[in-house]
């Protein structure tokens, strides 16, 4: 009976130590924004929800395919980042949310993504939600702007790449256009593995 009690105490101490290590790991990051629930459809017409990335480290961006400014270089940056992460044997999911779901149907997203040779095994391009839902999701979960520009087919949105921990919390953002800190992103991702 005593032996069982010692084993249970030992297991509790181990679980507490693991939980404290995980909490300490997240404390060194500058952000702490809980990502809300989401549901969309990817470039292959498959449903993707927040449960598909639960427990995984992932990177998020916000794009739209008819963007005439920053989305093309942002997506090229993510494609390069995908290759860098694979070269480091880091299993990280990538999620690019369209902020123009009315136009960006799955086939449009797939054609767009293929231009960047995106590997869909760990990169989803999402649509299939309402304009109102995606704007609210971006505003609340990422404290970031997302809105249609009045009288235009263009949208205002962040150019950041967001690092989300396995705990479903946004931990850090990085410049997604121009001087993207690839080494820093890889290093930060390794800390979470």
For this entry, give a set of tags.
alpha+beta, two-stranded antiparallel sheet, 5 helices, single chain, 2 domains, 193 residues, globular, Glutaredoxin, 6-stranded mixed sheet
Short description:
The protein has 193 residues and is an alpha+beta fold. It has helices at 2-27, 71-87, 106-114, 131-141, 182-191; strands at 33-34, 39-41, 47-49, 58-63, 93-98, 123-126, 146-148, 155-157, 160-164, 169-175. A hairpin with a 6-residue loop joins strand 7 and strand 8.
Write the layout of secondary structure elements.
Elements: H1 2-27, E1 33-34, E2 39-41, E3 47-49, E4 58-63, H2 71-87, E5 93-98, H3 106-114, E6 123-126, H4 131-141, E7 146-148, E8 155-157, E9 160-164, E10 169-175, H5 182-191
Parallel strand pairs: 4-5, 5-6
Antiparallel strand pairs: 1-10, 2-3, 4-9, 7-8, 9-10
Provide a descriptive summary of the structure in words.
- The longest helix is centred in the N-terminal third of the chain and has 26 residues, at 2-27.
- The chain folds into 2 domains: 1-30; 31-191, Glutaredoxin (3-Layer(aba) Sandwich), CATH 3.40.30.10.
- The chain contains 5 helices and 10 strands, in the order αββββαβαβαββββα.
- It is globular, with a radius of gyration of 19 Å.
- The chain has a 6-stranded mixed sheet with strand order 1-10-9-4-5-6, with helices on both faces. A two-stranded antiparallel sheet has the order 2-3. A two-stranded antiparallel sheet has the order 7-8.
- The chain is of the alpha+beta class.
- The N and C termini lie far apart (37 Å).
